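hey so i finally got around to running the thing on that chain from the lab meeting. sorry it took forever, my laptop kept dying and i had to restart like 3 times. anyway pasting the input first so we r on the same page abt which one it is
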Amino acid sequence: MIKKFQFREEAGWSHADEILLCLDTGSWRVERPVLNKEKCNYCGLCALFCPTQCMVDRDDHFEPNLAFCKGCGICANECPRKAFRMRKEGDA
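ok and heres what got predicted. didnt touch it at all, straight out
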């Protein structure tokens, strides 16, 4: 017998087709990820490891939705090609 989950969001895996944690970042984020598209090979590891699932699939790369990004830097740490770098908020 296959156990069904009680809630739709209750699972060990998400396909990131729905945002599980919809919390607006507000003004408290200190850093934000900046993508270098030239380095990105569209592997999806940034989206897989993003705890807030704020990565948006753009068909040839993923980019963070900064309205929901917390600035944790996990995408930058997990990217094997170092396509992301963290930039302080307020820097151009």
